[in-house]
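Encode chain A's predicted structure.
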Amino acid sequence: MESSTIFFWFDVVFYIGAVGCGLHSLMANRTAQGTLAWMLALFALPYAAVPLYFVFGRRHFGAYASGLKRAQERVRTKAEVERFLAYEPESPRHAARGLEVAEDIGGAGYTTGNCVTLLQDGYETFEAIFEAIDRAEAYVLVQFYIFRDDDLGRRLRDRMVAAAGRGVRCCLLYDEIGCFTTPRSYWAGFTKAGVKVSAFGARRPLRGRFELNFRNHRKIVVCDGNVAFVGGNNVGDEYLGESKRFGAWRDAHVRIEGPLVQAAQLAFQQDWEFAAGEVLPLEWQAQRAENGNQIAMILPTGPADNLETGSLMFVAAINSAQKRLWIVSPYFVPDQAVMSALKLASLRGVEVRVMVPDKPDHLAVWLAGFDFIEEAERAGIEAYRYTGGFLHQKAVLIDHDIAMIGTANMDNRSFRLNFEVTVIVADEGFAACVEDMIEKDFEKAREHVETDYQQRSVLFKLAVRGARLLAPVL
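Encoded structure for chain A:
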């Protein structure tokens, strides 16, 4: 066969693939911008775009959705889980003032009798986590997006190995992509000691290779069903401020006691069932915290949901604000719905502030953020750039009585592609702690000014505009 004939059929196959992917994008993609971006790429550069579409083009995680349904059927039908899900405290929805809809978006609902403690850096976070692991008697569940084989990673491994040695059941769940560079020898240190280790994504040998764009970004630790941790920190020395590139690292986590622990545990159990195919024997009897009566809920979001729960969570939070809305995120790449909600909040008199890092860790997302900040400031939104190191925390403060801490960033990946988890606390005392934390961060930030963008070079502005166009697929 002549080479020209080979190339002809090669072209035919790729253009048929481009048509097929284009039709799939048209029918399945959830945003007009994302669909248009993929259509242009598929027909302009089919040789590159068709393979990329198989990896990055889909918006709904069908394999996980099926696994999630199995997990719900296997986990929720257990009598002890049913008792937790039927747990009805003294009708706390009213305290969530405007964020009652979070219960309808997802999660196990608001509960009372919780004690949620703010942990304001990596040292405080991991000291509390290590203490809980050392005290565990029945089981330890650990889930992070990133585990590094460094000093902090080995300290965590030592704690879990010691716990397993004294008869505590230990389970560790990691994301395959987040831990792509973590050596196998690191995991072997756990498994040799009897710790169960599973990777999110490892059970999809063929189809899973084309679902790399979906990440489990959750960070959850549960010990004995009576204490849990959720937040933005991962397991790595950089989260202790020991990064040569970024130096100081700003992040936030929470320590939880009360019925909210079982809600965090439920999110872990469903992820574990998908990854390991196992329903763990856990403690599901909800217990009120001894030293707290906070109203709170845990909201897991992700691409397996029927609705775009990540985006809806932020829209609901923004719409509930009456006087003040402070948002801290390492990335500011909101979709149209979130940006419109932010503008309307500012226009109706809400003090809207957004704080992002001055240093980038992902260049394209950082560049796109410049254009979104320019747009936001035209509606009166105040933007700040944190200069005290790298700002990685994900926090939202609403008025004087509601605060959110979790794993979700303000970008398309957290809105539609990542599995995230957020703690929503309706409590003036906790909100005051978050306010104090963010105010201290504002002291190490500078206000974004016109010269940050307008006086940059033409090449920089072109890069910003190009990154903005890619925002739906970043």
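The first strand starts at residue 111 and ends at 119.
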